[in-house]
UniProtKB/TrEMBL annotation, chain A:
It is a lipid-anchor. GO terms for cellular component: plasma membrane. It holds the Pfam family Bmp. This is Unannotated protein. It is found in: Cell membrane. Residues 45-344 form the ABC transporter substrate-binding protein PnrA-like domain. Belongs to the BMP lipoprotein family. Its main location: membrane.
TrEMBL record, chain B:
Residues 5-241, 258-502 form the ABC transporter domain. Transmembrane segments: none annotated. It is a peripheral membrane protein. InterPro entries: AAA+_ATPase (IPR003593), ABC_carbohydrate_import_ATPase (IPR050107), ABC_transporter-like_ATP-bd (IPR003439), ABC_transporter-like_CS (IPR017871), P-loop_NTPase (IPR027417). It is found in: Cell membrane. Signal peptide: none annotated. GO terms for cellular component: plasma membrane. GO terms for molecular function: ATP binding; ATP hydrolysis activity. This is Unannotated protein. The lineage of its organism: unclassified sequences, metagenomes, ecological metagenomes.
Automatic annotation (TrEMBL), chain C:
The keyword Thylakoid does not apply. It is found in: Cell membrane. GO terms for molecular function: transmembrane transporter activity. Its main location: membrane. This is Unannotated protein. InterPro entries: ABC_transp_permease. The chain crosses the membrane at residues 5-29, 51-72, 84-101, 107-128, 137-155, 191-209, 238-259, 265-282, 289-305, 317-336. GO terms for cellular component: plasma membrane. It is a multi-pass membrane protein. It comes from freshwater metagenome. Keywords: Cell membrane, Membrane, Transmembrane, Transmembrane helix.
């Protein structure tokens, strides 16, 4: 597949180890390379780190999944700090590169400007960056997601489940990224019930990133929404989501998880009965696909968007709470995939 | 009578300093034994040794004829020695009873405090020794004298038979001193022994059964009050003849330097502290202000210094109305100020002496050169003060806190007089200082008066007021109740005026 | 007073050694050799590239440290450095991104905006303290939250911020080259040009505090509010001015990053300067040189922490180390203070005991 010039969208399909298909949506500067023998995978995390459920952890799972099938490959991880400047992030990436990691995954858009510099310094190292598509270099791949599409689905599920015509959205930290979740969710809910009320609350504003890991705040926000008449709440708030589950359990309402299938989390065992569904943003799939493409010599620069169409985005059906809506959901998925339904990525102001 | 406490050949050295050297004392049971000496003569070190806070290098302490070694105050308390500190250690928001039992609460099985038993014991103590305190009153509501009685009760509660009182009268007004002395006599009549540390010779002569004099770390004499006098004691303490007070015969000038007209001060919470106060101080005059503390003296001083604004009336200095001037402007117009609480208001305790020379003079030459400080001038003049006023310090670079109270005060006096102000506000200028420093400060004030300085002297020390003042103004309840001629007034008359009684 | 300088150095060294011992203990419990870890940290932290990066980080830390120190001199605990810095660097970036000006003027304007915004924000806490008696700690914590909210609100694309296509970041418009400060090549890296201003800030802090009447008034008020007031200092005004000044300095904390690195303010801008600044002022004993060493040391630790993760040691161990240092330094300085006081009292005691006018020379008195 070397040097093949692909301008059309969705031309290229690769079968993943996990059995999922994805497609390159915008391969702006296609450049492929020969298969590289991977010995060390570098992961530079965003705030929160590996141990908190969320995209950091999923990115790590992606690398781990590769290591599971490739004995002897090591993962080098570096953590982020609040005091990070672009220079600090730059050095973190550089440290991974000089200590032999290839490929390297930068988790989070905050790495974008640092990556521009470091990737240019190490043309032989492949870099993947999650949630950003601004770095255009031959050895960089942006791994981005259509979060609004998955959020649209769980929004529709919420509206279908709601008896009060009132649902809630809890965002961890108010950033454009999380606002994509909000926009999709609200649009999804309204596609089912035009008159539905969508309550919106963000737990913190940057530079306070505590909203991604503060279950107490999550619980408080969810309780407030339930008190205000909501009966389903969707949290795009990382670790804080557990608080919303807790509130839902206490008040006999519904809660929706994010990123991974929260129903299956051992830590959420107590809340299984109230988790309606989860919006799946399969960062692990994206990262694994990125690593595999290097292993197989099919690496493409530019950005790869994971969406409903290629299965990088979805919703979970564990627990069977939404199985009765399957037909409706399938229609919506088809509509989005075919472009009949336009999902906004910015909330209506 | 044999000695209940005997101290033989006590030595205590700190590197470079002999704090106590060959100290010998014999204290008889049931007596009041005074230990006098200048600040820094070694009294405090000796008391710390006796109370177990400091271990001596050598020497013996005998209690009841038995040799003892105190490793901590617990050891000395166990042998019935108790200490009443100069600075009270009481919790304001607790009752008298709670303060007394604090740290030695009687508890029943399970740790419940037996309040009733404690109260009974305290009441018994106060009855036996005639200590007038109410166990259930809040300490915050108590006056200084009452607080001191609480401290004494605290020590007695712990079973003390020998009480050490460290300068107990320093904080008391005359009436309270009398009350304290009655209490002390009561205690000795019950067989208790009192060790009384002081440098106030009058008091010592009036109350002590025995007096030991310390100088430069050693005991230099032991005398009986009936066979000595004030002058002899002072000379024993200082080791030389006291400087004689100059006889003042010149008349004050006529120029009004300070004029206060009908000034009233009401606090923000509507308490009227000063009512229609009018005063004049002329050049070359010392106007003494006598009064029981808390009758408006502090506010009067703060009003003159621009630290509080008069609610009505006005204050002028050399004909200029300064009622609306800032403290800075008032100082710069030629006013020196010796505050009554030197450590709180007069010094930056943790700054070196030479920086303290700048305080109050930081805006004008020679201490300032426009925007910049003149460090060299500050150091030079600090050296001068140290020499001229005999400030005992190894260097002008030590922290003010390291100096003894008397030396701190001498430094302040030197500083406030350095610029030869037209008006000097001297509040309690010799409170708590030893006789040597007192004489020196008095001389400074008298010399300045002769040179034409106007001085407002606020003091609680009647000797000081009588010796220095050209006129005496008496303040009571925020009013000037009398202006007296010290030559024609007796201390008794003054005392009556201070308590607000009309002089017949 | 040579001994005072000596003890001033002993205390931080003792604190660092204590924390090193503690960390070594933890590492040994984890069966990791402390020597190897230390060696890895030093090798990595002192590589030329990292020295440059550490200098750049330390420069920001240093300014935060000076801002904290000037507050400490007044007995003010300026925990508001975070908010002052954030608001200042945000508005500096916004104003800087508005137009093109002649280079020197443009940069000067950006720096001034930072100092003024930081100063104004700091003065709110000063006003509340002087006029309403509200503890500056409480008001500053509130003001930090308000500043963060305000910046987050204003950084929205519909307001003062913008969002690049394909990016999830928000930033202010890029400052034109005329408003960018050149970097200084050093050891193969690029040092922020603002480091020169940093040195100047340290120098100005020292001169102002120790050589001027203003500095005397400030220190006097900090040492004793009442004594300063009795000495004719307008002490409440000094508290207000000091809080504003501390805020103004805090407002310059992010200038190096803004002027020489990012040229715009964005979500990914660093935070957490308040606690670092306060720790550095403590560690450096409010002395400009002390803070400089402390800032570099802190930057070194932050930086070389990266290599720990690679060695299988969680880098939180560095946070523990920094915390222990701050804790031990407080204890160590208290001990040193007591030793100094004792020594002085002994000197004074001997000066009194000799009963002579031995005022001028230390040698004579202690002999």
């Amino acid at each position: 597949m070397q040097n093949r010039n692909t301008k059309k969208k969705g031309l290229l399909a690769v079968v993943l180890a996990a059995g999922l298909a994805f497609s390159v949506v915008t391969a702006t500067a296609p450049s492929a390379s020969a298969a590289t023998k991977i010995t060390k995978i570098g992961v530079a995390f965003d705030l929160g780190g590996r141990d908190i459920p969320g995209f950091n952890q999923l990115a790590y799972f992606g690398a781990r999944d590769y290591v599971k099938t490739h004995k002897g490959v090591k993962i080098q991880e570096l953590q982020a700090a609040l005091s990070d400047t672009d220079a600090t992030r730059e050095e973190r990436l550089r440290l991974l590169a000089t200590s032999g990691s290839n490929p390297i995954i930068a988790v989070g858009f905050t790495y974008a400007s640092s990556l521009k510099i470091v990737a240019a310094e190490f043309p032989d190292v492949k870099f993947g960056i999650v949630d950003d598509s601004t770095v255009v270099l031959p050895n960089v791949q942006g791994i981005v997601f259509a979060e609004q599409e998955g959020s649209f689905l769980v929004g529709a599920a919420a509206a279908l489940k709601s008896k009060t015509g009132n649902v809630g959205f809890i965002g961890g930290v108010q950033t454009p990224l999380i606002q994509k979740f909000e926009a999709g969710y609200a649009a999804g809910a309204k596609s089912v019930n035009k008159k539905i009320k969508v309550q919106v609350s963000y737990l913190s504003v940057f530079p306070d990133f505590s909203g991604f890991n503060d279950p107490a705040k999550g619980e408080e926000a969810a309780r407030g929404m339930f008190d205000n008449g909501a009966d389903v709440v969707y949290s795009a708030a990382g670790g804080s989501g557990a608080g919303a589950h807790k509130a839902a359990l206490a008040m006999k309402k519904w809660s929706i998880g994010v990123d991974a299938d929260e129903w299956a989390f051992p830590s959420n065992k107590a809340y299984k009965s109230v988790i309606l569904t989860s919006m799946l943003k399969k960062v692990d799939v994206g990262v694994l696909a990125f690593i595999n493409s290097i292993d197989k010599g099919t690496f493409k620069s530019g950005s790869v968007t994971f969406n409903l169409k290629n299965g990088g985005i979805g919703y979970s059906t564990s627990g069977g709470r939404v199985s009765s809506y399957k037909k409706k959901m399938d229609t919506l998925i088809a509509g989005i995939v075919k472009g009949k339904i336009k999902v906004p990525s910015k909330p209506a102001m | 009578m044999s000695a209940i406490v005997e101290i033989q050949g006590i030595e205590k050295k700190y590197p470079g300093v002999v704090a106590n050297h060959n100290v010998n004392l014999a204290i008889k049971k049931g007596e009041i034994h005074a230990i006098i000496g200048e600040n820094g003569a070694g009294k405090s070190t000796l008391m710390k040794i006796l109370y177990g806070m400091v271990m001596p290098d050598s020497g013996t302490i005998l209690v009841d004829g038995k040799k003892v070694i105190f490793k901590s105050p617990q050891d000395s308390i166990a042998l019935g020695i108790g200490m009443v500190h100069q600075h009270f250690m009481l919790a304001d928001n607790a009752s008298v009873l709670e303060n007394v039992i604090l740290g030695s609460e009687p508890t029943s099985f399970g740790g419940v405090i037996q309040v009733d038993a404690a109260r009974a014991k305290l009441i018994e103590i106060t009855k036996n020794y005639g200590l007038d305190i109410n166990p259930d009153q809040l300490v915050a509501e108590l006056g200084v004298g009452e607080r001191q009685r609480v401290e004494i009760a605290k020590v007695l509660y712990r079973g003390a038979q020998i009480l050490i009182l460290d300068e107990p009268t320093a904080v008391l007004v005359p009436q309270e001193v009398d009350e304290l002395f009655r209490n002390l006599k009561d205690l000795t009549s019950h067989g208790l022994t009192i060790i009384f540390i002081s440098h106030k010779l009058d008091e010592v002569l009036s109350i002590a059964d025995d007096i030991s004099v310390m100088r430069a770390g050693t005991t230099v004499a032991s005398v009986i009050p009936s066979k000595t006098n004030k002058k002899e004691l002072a000379e024993l303490m200082v080791g030389r003849e006291l400087p004689k007070r100059r006889e003042v015969s010149t008349k004050p000038g006529l120029e009004k330097i300070l004029e206060i007209k009908d000034a009233t001060y009401v606090t923000p919470d509507h308490r009227e502290i000063l009512h229609g106060v009018s005063l004049e101080v002329h050049s070359g005059e010392i106007l003494g202000v006598a009064g029981v503390e808390g009758n408006g003296q502090s506010e009067l001083i703060e009003m003159i210094m621009g630290l509080v604004k008069a609610s009505s009336g006005n204050v002028s200095i050399m004909g200029h109305d300064i009622s609306d001037s800032s403290s800075r402007e008032i100082r710069d117009s030629g006013v020196g100020y010796i505050p009554q609480d030197r450590q709180r208001d007069g010094l930056l305790m943790s700054a070196p002496l030479w920086e303290n020379r700048i305080l109050g003079h930081q805006a004008t030459a020679p201490m300032a050169n426009g925007f910049w400080l003149n460090k060299a001038a500050a150091k030079k003049d600090s050296e001068r003060i140290v020499v001229d006023l005999d400030v005992r310090t190894p260097s002008i670079n030590v922290m003010a806190a390291a100096l003894s109270g008397g030396n701190q005060q001498k430094f302040i006096v030197g500083r406030e007089m350095a610029d030869k102000p037209s008006l000097l506000i001297a509040a309690q200028p010799t409170r708590g200082v030893d006789v040597g420093a007192q004489a020196l400060i008095w001389n400074q004030l008298i010399e300045a008066r002769l040179a034409g300085m106007a001085i407002l002297l606020i003091s609680a020390d009647l000797d000081e007021l009588f010796n220095l003042s050209d006129r005496l103004a008496v303040i009571s309840g925020g009013k000037i109740v009398a202006v007296l001629d010290p030559d024609k007034t007796t201390p008794e008359q003054l005392g009556l005026a201070m308590t607000g009684e009309k002089i017949a | 007073m040579k001994s005072r300088i000596f003890w001033g150095i002993v205390a931080p060294v003792a604190a660092i050694v204590t924390s090193l011992l503690l960390i070594s203990g933890i590492l040994l419990l984890k069966h990791t050799s402390p020597v190897d870890i230390l060696k890895a940290m030093i090798d990595y932290g002192f590589s030329p590239r990292n020295i440059v990066a550490e200098l750049n980080i330390a420069s920001g830390y240093y300014i935060a440290g000076v801002a904290a120190a000037i507050g400490f001199k007044m007995m003010l605990f300026n925990i508001g450095i975070d908010g002052q810095y954030r608001l200042a660097v945000f508005f500096a970036a916004v104003v800087g991104g508005l137009f093109t000006l002649p280079p020197v003027l443009h940069v000067t304007l950006i720096i001034l905006v930072g100092a003024i915004v930081g100063g104004l924000w700091g003065s709110i806490a000063g006003y509340l303290k002087v006029k309403r008696g509200i503890s500056e700690v409480i008001s500053n914590i509130m003001l930090n939250a308000i500043a963060a909210g305000l910046v987050a609100y204003l950084l929205q694309p519909t307001r003062l911020g913008e969002q690049a296509e394909g990016s999830n970041n928000l930033n202010t418009p890029i400052i034109a080259p005329s408003g960018q400060l050149p970097t200084i090549p050093f050891l193969g890296g690029q040092i922020h040009g603002f480091i020169i201003f940093t040195v100047f800030i340290g120098l100005a802090y020292w001169v102002l505090l120790n050589k001027s009447t203003f500095g005397f008034n400030l220190r006097a008020t900090g040492l004793s509010f009442k004594a300063a007031r009795a000495g004719g200092v307008n002490a409440p005004k000094m508290i207000f001015v000091t809080m504003a000044l501390s805020g103004a300095i805090a407002g310059l904390t992010g200038m190096g990053t803004l002027l020489s690195e990012t040229h715009s303010y964005s979500i990914s801008f660093p935070s957490g300067y308040a606690l670092t600044g306060l720790a550095l002022a403590l560690l450096g004993r409010n002395h400009p040189v002390g803070i400089a060493f402390a800032a570099y040391f802190w930057a070194f630790l932050d930086r070389s922490a990266g290599v720990l993760d690679l060695n299988g040691v969680p880098k939180e161990i560095i946070t523990i180390m920094q915390g222990t240092i701050v804790l031990s330094i407080v204890v160590a300085y208290e001990i040193v203070k007591r030793i100094n006081k004792q020594q002085e009292q002994k000197l004074v005691g001997s000066a009194s005991a000799t009963l002579k006018v031995s005022a001028t020379t230390e040698g004579e008195a202690s002999a």
